[in-house]
Structure formats: C-alpha cells, structure tokens
Design a protein that fits this description.
Elements lengths: L14 E6 L2 E5 L3 E4 L8 E2 L10 E6 L4 E2 L4 E2 L5 E5 L4 H4 L5 E5 L1 E2 L9 E4 L5 E3 L3 E4 L7 H13 L7 E4 L2 E4 L1 H4 L3 E4 L2 H44 L14 E3 L7 E3 L3 E4 L4 E5 L15 E4 L12 E2 L5 E2 L1 H7 L9 E4 L2 H5 L4 E3 L3 E3 L3 E6 L4 H10 L2 H4 L10 H5 L2 E4 L2 H44 L6 H11 L1
Parallel strand pairs: 5-12, 21-26, 22-25
Antiparallel strand pairs: 1-2, 3-16, 4-13, 5-8, 6-7, 9-11, 9-13, 10-15, 14-15, 17-18, 19-28, 20-27, 21-23, 24-25, 24-27
Helix pairs in contact: 2-4, 2-10, 4-7, 4-10, 4-11, 7-10
C-alpha cells in the first residue's frame, strides 16, 4: 500500500446557523434533518429460536459489536433457528446499520451502531435494531455520524431504564436533528475518515503489540529471577542446580530450599460484607472487595477503597484486621484467574472473595514477586466456579533462596518492573491519545468544521 501524509484540512468558506442544540453551525450548503431520514425504517431482530425454525443461520449479537471499528466482529458468531417463511424478511443486507437498543450499563450506554458489511447470510438478535440505509445516505458516512453521536452522548437523552435494563427509545433518538452533507461530500468524508481510521488503527495495534511484548518480558523476568534461572547479582545462571522433583518448576539453584508456602507465610480468607454495612466512607478501616484492586492508584499498593468500616463493625462481622505489607489476591471466580496481587499500605478488612498472605519468615517484596509468578488460577480445582482454599495455597511448594538473595531479587525486580510498568503506562497513554485524536477528527469532519474534499482528491491521486 502506498503511504501518504495527512493532508492539511481547512474549514469551509461559508457557514450558517445549524439550529441544533449540540451544534452551532454547519456549512452553508448542508441541510439539517431528523436522524430518522437516514434510514428506511427500524426492524427488530429475533428473540431466541423461532417456532418451527428449521434453518440455523448466523445471528449477530451485541457481543459481536466491534465498538472501536464500528463493524461486526467475526470472533465467535452463534446461530439461531429461523422459520423458513421468515428467513428472507429477517436477512441482513450488506450496508445495513445495526443499532444496539437494549442492555448496556452506566459506563457503556446503549445506542452504539455498527456497520454490517459482510457477504454471508445473517440475522440479528432482539437487542439490536436493523436499520436499512435510505437513498440519501452512504452507509460508510452514516457509521461515522453514529460514531460522533455516540461519542458526544446524544443517545443518553433517549435511554429509558426498565427493570434494570437500558432501552433506547427509537422514536426519540431518531427525532434528533443531524447535519447532512450532499452525497458527493458524504463519499469524500467516508473516504477520508476510512484513510485516517486505518492509520490510527494500525498505530494502536502496533502499540498494543508492544504492550503485550513488554508484559510478556515482565512476566518472564519475574519467573527467571524468583525460580533461580538467573542470579540477579551477576546476570548469569547460578553455578550449580539440583532437581526440584516438581514438573512445573524444574531445577533450582543447589543452595536454595524447597519448602511449603506455610513455612514463610500464613493465609487467611475474608468474611461476608453485608450490604447494609457497605457504602460508608471516612471510617478507620478499609473494607476491601475484589473491585477495589482495579481502582486507580491500587495497581500494586492498596491505598484506598470504596468502603470503610469502624473497628466496632469489623469486630461485629468477625472480620480480621490485616496490617501493612499484607499481600492480597482474589480466591474465587473469574477474578482468581486474573492472578492479581496487591500489597496493603494501611490496616484493612477483606471480604470473602479475597485471601490474605501474611508474610512471617521472608522478605515481603520477594514473596510478592513469587506470588506474581505462581499461577494460583491454574492450580484451582476444576468446576463451574474456580476457587482455591487456604489449605491448598499454604501447601504449595516454593523455591526459597537465602534471605540476602531474597532482598537482592526484590530490589532488582523493583527497579526492573518500575521501568517496564512506566513503559507500558506510556504506551497506554499514547493509545488513549490516538483514540482521542480519532474521535476528535471524526467530530470535526462529520460536523463540517473541516472540509475534506480537496484532501480526499489528493488521497485518490496518490493512490492511483
């Protein structure tokens, strides 16, 4: 593919008032119409298998929406049985827009639209509205318009909450007014934004690959040091090794010990946290839930929590108070499989989905890195809900270097992981900036703040 640089964009020469509450002005020759004018109608999808359904056909679900590319993802498509008499009427057509109309959440409200641009036969689920595009619109332009409407939260005004589920009120949403350029400019806008989106996406994917490689390097470095494959003092393997007789561990340095975890730490689970005692702040003790591990600032050290309790309430609940330097990790469900590890910086209680590791005879930070290496999720008993008990963890046999080497390993990994984490954080920030740039560019072009006609002409010339 021939690469081109980003053309310089200029505003249109003449503007007029848009008469839209979220948009002040539009290019003079654009028109303003209700969003409903862009579609031939809104058709609901199917709810489960239809009576007398004979044919299994691909059924697009909300889970199949690629919200970053505004397309249907081909990851794990499912099928439904559709009545053969209804099959033709239900089929999606290439160029249809699919609008999420039910579900969502506070952080992700319903109303995102994606483009169906595949050649295979498919229908959509009842949580999705199918929108055949009207003759006044180009589908690729319309998907960018919907991306803009979603980014500014225009869909929120038409959301109704029923029985805990968000529903998009279609008549209200399609009554919103939008700017509509001529068909020729819709084509130019779609061409330019496709070009821009392709380059931003490639940059984001490249940085995501770098993040993945850095995370793999971080994990492999921790594994190599806490298992003794590398002596951090020399950067070389140890002089002599011996078998550990544990398949997943292999050899360990000859002078290291192999001991059960209970030799260096005690393990204790938390207690149930009644709803009536939740939601309080400003009390003396943190009361931690697994979700608190995801709070900003708690990526490694636990500095705060959404809930606090008094010592009196903790005593009434029978909740043990864990002190500074206690290592915490999820012990049940999908959270266990994430292998999160956190260290307390202040006194706290924990709920019954968390387990605490209280180090008694080892360096705390060495133990922390050792636990980062251990895949407790992989050690959990198989079942519908993965879980691991205190007895199972305390009897896991671990490689144990002398105290001075524990400190050396912890210090080395502290510096190493800080640099790696900073690089990963910078990559995430760059990805956020690229995504923000894409959102802003779509907004400026779709609303007519930038005229892309000349730029699109140059792109086509360069591609020829």
């Amino acid at each position: 593919m021939k690469e081109t640089t980003a053309p310089h964009l200029k505003p249109y020469r003449v503007y007029r008032e848009a008469g839209i509450d979220w948009l002040q002005e539009v290019p003079e020759h654009w028109v303003v119409v209700p969003l409903g004018k862009t579609t031939k109608g809104v058709a609901n999808g199917i709810w489960g298998d239809e009576p007398n359904g004979e044919d299994d056909i691909v059924c697009i679900r909300v889970a199949d929406f690629d919200r970053h590319r505004w397309r249907v993802s081909l990851g794990q498509l499912t099928t439904r049985a559709v009545n053969s008499k209804e099959r033709h009427r239900r089929l999606l057509r290439k160029g249809d827009l699919l609008l999420e109309k039910s579900g969502g959440g506070e952080r992700q409200p319903v109303g995102v639209a994606v483009l169906f641009d595949h050649d295979f036969e498919a229908v959509c689920s009842n949580f999705i509205a199918r929108m055949p595009v009207s003759e006044i619109c180009i589908p690729h332009w319309l998907i960018y318009l919907h991306a803009l409407l979603y980014s500014i939260g225009l869909n929120r005004r038409s959301i109704k909450q029923t029985t805990g589920i968000q529903n998009l009120d279609a008549p209200s949403f399609f009554g919103e007014y939008i700017p509509l350029p001529p068909m020729s400019e819709q084509k130019a806008i779609a061409r330019f934004l496709d070009w821009m989106d392709d380059r931003v996406t490639r940059l984001v994917e490249a940085k995501e690959r770098l993040v993945m490689l850095l995370e793999e390097l971080r994990a492999s470095t921790i594994a190599a040091t806490v298992t003794g494959r590398i002596d951090v003092r020399t950067g070389q393997p140890y002089p002599a090794y011996r078998p550990s007789d544990i398949d997943w561990l292999g050899r360990i340095p000859a002078h290291w010990e192999l001991a059960p975890f209970k030799r260096i730490a005690q393990f204790k689970s938390g207690v149930g946290f009644p709803v009536n005692d939740q939601g309080k702040v400003g009390q003396k003790l943190l009361f931690l839930k697994v979700s608190d591990m995801n709070l900003p600032g708690n990526e490694q050290l636990i500095r705060g929590a959404a809930n606090t309790v008094s010592p009196k309430v903790a005593n009434t609940l029978g909740a043990h108070v864990f002190g500074r330097d206690t290592i915490l990790f999820p012990k049940v469900g999908g959270a266990l499989l994430t292998n999160k590890r956190r260290i307390l910086t202040k006194d706290a209680c924990i709920d019954n989905n968390i387990m605490a590791c209280v180090v008694i005879a080892a360096d705390v930070w060495f133990t922390y890195y050792l636990m980062l290496w251990l895949d407790l999720g992989g050690m959990a008993k198989p079942g519908p809900v993965p879980a691991i008990s205190e007895g199972e963890v305390k009897n896991v046999r671990i490689p144990l270097p002398p105290p001075t080497e524990q400190v050396a390993i912890a210090q080395f990994l502290g510096v190493w992981t800080a640099k790696t984490d900073a690089a990963i954080s910078n990559m995430h920030r760059e990805i956020e900036l690229l995504q923000a740039y894409r959102t802003r560019m779509i907004s400026d072009v779709v609303t007519g703040k930038c005229d892309v006609r000349e730029a699109t002409h140059l792109l086509e010339e360069n591609a020829a």
